[in-house]
């Protein structure tokens, strides 16, 4: 495995990131390129060519900025910029840029197919209506379910028992025009498995069909809002087409979006995978100070598949969404609020 590839803006403008992505054997070559934004060329034509090359490149392009102010058009054309002072949602402030370069390089080169597909989905769906964007996300997710990177993760994980059946995976309580929906698998940190998903969909459909319900709140019982998909169910769909239809037509993402301003999601504790993705599709999200947010799917050879490539970038931008998904690291509640992933912080 080679080390990180670094190019200058002039190199980028000259086509340094434009070589064929695939080798003769179909393997991905250099999926990630870092662009040094420190030394700005004085020629505006070079910058314009760099912007064009960035938009057309098949690779993930991450800028590294150490002082100065690179042109906004170029920063926006890249997939992410690492900096020591935040200038906007295209940039992530990092204390040690070199350490972040190594971490991102390792993440992408370990799972290049998932990382590249994530980048392409984020660049494709930003202007699409939410239902269409959810479909694109799911097409990509189903593709990766059939890929070698996900098979490798499944093999390393080994057999895992499915979740035990429960009688009330979701609690629903109505008080006049208000409906409260509570994920109710606290012993599994409200993992988003089949039972929880189906019961949540039923409750959300009730809220949509009943015009007398003016306000809906969604929260979770126990120490965490939702720890993401139930790992025991990963890879158990009968086929990839069925998996797509279950995710999109049988999942909660579309319904959360359709409820619009009527729905508020209140999160706390661990929010992983679907526990981040579904709230991000809601009109309002509040978090307790102990909440953390994490998107680990790329490390499994997948991309977020419950709406994360749709709701998260609409809140924080595709650049920071890429950063969260590539690193798989937890984001604290205060930073999530500053970025706009949540709309407000509540008391403990």
Structural account:
The chain is an alpha/beta fold and 348 residues long. The protein has 2 domains: 5-110; 130-302 and 331-345, 2-enoyl-CoA Hydratase, Chain A, domain 1 (Alpha-Beta Complex). The chain has helices at residues 9-13, 44-56, 72-77, 97-110, 112-125, 130-145, 148-157, 194-209, 240-249, 253-259, 274-280, 308-316, 318-327, 333-339; strands at residues 5-8, 32-36, 60-64, 80-83, 91-93, 170-175, 178-183, 215-220, 263-267, 270-272, 284-287, 292-294, 331-332, 344-345. The strands form 3 sheets. Strands 6-7-8-9-11-14 form a 6-stranded mixed beta sheet, with helices on one face. Helix 1 (9-13) links the parallel strand 1 (5-8) and strand 2. Helix 5 runs antiparallel to helix 13 (318-327) and helix 11 (274-280) crosses helix 12.
List keywords for this structure.
2 domains, Enoyl-CoA_hydra/iso, alpha/beta, five-stranded parallel beta sheet, 348 residues, globular, 2-enoyl-CoA Hydratase, Chain A, domain 1, single chain, 14 helices
- Mean pLDDT across all residues, rounded? 92
Overall geometry: globular
Rounded Rg: 21 Å
The helix content, as a percent range, equals 40-55%
State which percent range the strand residues make up. Answer: 15-25%
Task: Report on the biggest sheet.
Answer: 6 strands, mixed
Output the structural class: alpha/beta
| Count of separate structural domains | 2
Compute the number of helices. 14
Low-pLDDT segments: none
CATH architecture of the largest domain: Alpha-Beta Complex
> Looking at CATH, which topology of the largest domain would you report?
2-enoyl-CoA Hydratase, Chain A, domain 1
CATH superfamily of the largest domain: 2-enoyl-CoA Hydratase, Chain A, domain 1
Strand order of the largest sheet: 6-7-8-9-11-14
Distance between the termini: 46 Å
CATH class of the largest domain: Alpha Beta
Q: Report the order of strands and helices.
A: EHEHEHEEHHHHEEHEHHEEHEEHHEHE
Number of strands: 14
InterPro entries: ClpP/crotonase-like_dom_sf, Enoyl-CoA_hydra/iso
Protein name: Enoyl-CoA hydratase/isomerase family protein
Organism: Actinomadura fibrosa
Family: Belongs to the enoyl-CoA hydratase/isomerase family.
């Amino acid at each position: 495995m080679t080390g990180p590839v670094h190019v200058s803006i002039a190199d980028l403008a000259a086509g340094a990131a434009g070589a064929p992505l695939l080798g003769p054997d179909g393997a991905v070559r250099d999926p990630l390129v870092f662009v040094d934004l420190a030394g700005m060329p004085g020629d505006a034509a070079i910058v314009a060519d760099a912007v064009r090359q960035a938009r057309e490149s098949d690779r993930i392009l991450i800028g590294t900025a150490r002082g100065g102010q690179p042109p906004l058009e170029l920063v926006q054309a890249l997939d992410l910029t690492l900096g020591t002072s935040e200038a906007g949602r295209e940039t992530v402030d990092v204390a040690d840029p070199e350490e972040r370069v190594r971490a991102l390089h390792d993440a992408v080169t370990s799972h290049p197919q998932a990382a590249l597909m994530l980048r392409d989905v984020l660049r494709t769906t930003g202007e699409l209506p939410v239902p269409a964007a959810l479909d694109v996300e799911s097409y990509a997710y189903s593709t990766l379910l059939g890929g070698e990177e996900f098979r490798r993760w499944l093999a390393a994980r080994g057999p895992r028992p499915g979740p035990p059946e429960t009688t009330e995976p979701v609690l629903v309580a109505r008080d006049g025009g208000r409906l409260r929906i509570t994920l109710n698998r606290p012993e599994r940190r409200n993992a988003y498995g089949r039972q929880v998903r189906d019961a949540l969909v039923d409750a959300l459909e009730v809220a949509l069909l009943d015009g007398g319900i003016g306000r809906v709140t969604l929260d979770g019982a126990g120490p965490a809002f939702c720890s993401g998909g139930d790992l025991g169910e990963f890879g158990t769909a009968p086929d990839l087409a069925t998996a797509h239809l279950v995710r999109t037509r049988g999942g909660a993402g579309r319904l959360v979006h359709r409820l619009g301003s009527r729905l508020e999601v209140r999160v706390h504790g661990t929010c992983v995978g679907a526990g981040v993705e579904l709230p991000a599709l809601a009109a309002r999200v509040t978090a307790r100070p102990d909440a953390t947010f994490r998107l680990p799917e790329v490390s499994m050879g997948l991309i977020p598949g419950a709406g994360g490539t749709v709701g998260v970038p609409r809140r924080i931008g595709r650049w920071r969404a890429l950063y969260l998904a590539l690193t798989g690291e937890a984001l604290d509640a205060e930073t999530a609020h500053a970025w706009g992933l949540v709309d407000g912080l509540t008391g403990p």
